[in-house]
Amino acid sequence: MSPAADHRVLPVPDGLAGERVDAAMAKMFGLSRTRAAELIGQGHVRVDGGSVGKSDRVLPGTLIDVDIPVEPDPLTVVPEVVEGIRIIHDDDSIVVIDKPVGVAVHPSPGWSGPTVVGHLAGAGFKIATSGASERQGIVQRLDVGTSGVMVICKSERAYSLLKNAFRQRDVDKTYHALVQGHPDPLEGTIDAPIGRHPRADYKFAVMADGRHSVTHYTTLEAHRFASLLEISLETGRTHQIRVHMAALKHPCVGDLTYGGDPSLARRVGLERQWLHAVRLGFEHPDSAEYVEYVSDYPEDLAHALEVIREAH
Q1: Domains of the chain
Q2: Which of 247, 253, 256, 240 is nearest to 179 (CA)?
């Protein structure tokens, strides 16, 4: 028996005599028929000490012995040092990190990969306890597929002050994005509400009844196939930059979820969107002095940009 299993033994009551094992288990243990059949198929069920098939019939008084594996809570923070997370700054109140691609900020249903909060726990950082248990100390998020600089709070005071600063839009969040084509005008503001996509719940879209969302962009470099933009966010909606650039018909290079060209992504060797949080500036919660932290382009983005620069 697995140590993380709920072990139960019950005799078959007279009223279930002649039932199939999976049907009897569903009634006796409060499981679905499908789950009961899975457990039988995985060898977690014995009848009177012997093996059993799901369509076997049961007799009254027969002992059904079941190991029900305990499913791990998807929101549990698992301490685990994550390769590639770099500490940019650390003091009593905050820790600023350079988040690599492929790392989520915190656990969530459907995500079983590495997380920032798991890394900090594994590396011995004590972070603020405010917020939901899986999101303690978190005042901002970056997508799994977006890399760059972000801050996590270690003290309750820092959490309170910075949470408020993000809410009041007193934090300077600067991103670089490599987008397909050339935005016209070369610099501008996108003010378009964002809501959940009506047909795909993992995506977002510009929606009339969405949440107020404002993105400012400036073109830094214009190349044959793509433009490098500097972007500052006034609001912080999920996927905001990706949704707004796609709405302009200039999706981030490599962003296949939001209309990026797969052949261009292959040409530049990208398996994710070209989007990087390059700078983060705010008033330090202790000194109230303005501080700014920066992150260089990671290798995959730097390589893709070089390919675009050299394309003729």
Answers
A1: 5-69 (3.10.290.10), 73-166 (3.30.2350.10), 169-312 (3.30.2350.10)
A2: 253
**Rounded to 5 degrees, what are φ and ψ at 68?**
-105, 105
pLDDT of residue 311: 85
| pLDDT confidence of residue 78 | 83
**pLDDT tens sequence across 216-274:** 999 999 999 999 999 999 998 999 999 999 999 999 999 999 999 999 999 999 999 99
Kindly state the tokens that stand for 247.
């709405």
Other Cβ atoms less than 10 A from the Cβ of 308: the count is: 21
Asked if residue 170 lies in contact with residue 125, where contact means CB atoms within 8 angstroms, the answer is: no
* Residue 223, CA distances (Å) to 101, 176, 185, 259 in order: 25, 15, 15, 19
Is residue 1 scored above 90 in pLDDT? no
Of 46, 111, 35, nearest to 72 (Cα)? 111
Buried b (16+ CB within 10 A) or exposed e, 84-117: ebeeeeeeebbbbbbbbbebbbbbeeeeeebbbb
Q: To which residue do tokens 């070369």 refer? A: 186
Among residues 67, 98, 143, 255, which one is catalytic?
Answer: 143
What's the pLDDT at 2? 44
CA separation for the pair 88, 145 (Å, rounded): 20
What is the dihedral sign for C-alpha 137, 142, 145, 148? negative
200 and 184 in contact (C-beta within 8 Å)? no
Known catalytic residue at 143: yes
Q: What is the pLDDT of residue 6?
A: 85
Give the Cα separation of 272 and 257 in Å (integer).
Answer: 9
Expressed in percent and rounded to 5, the helix, strand and coil fractions of the chain are 25, 30, 45
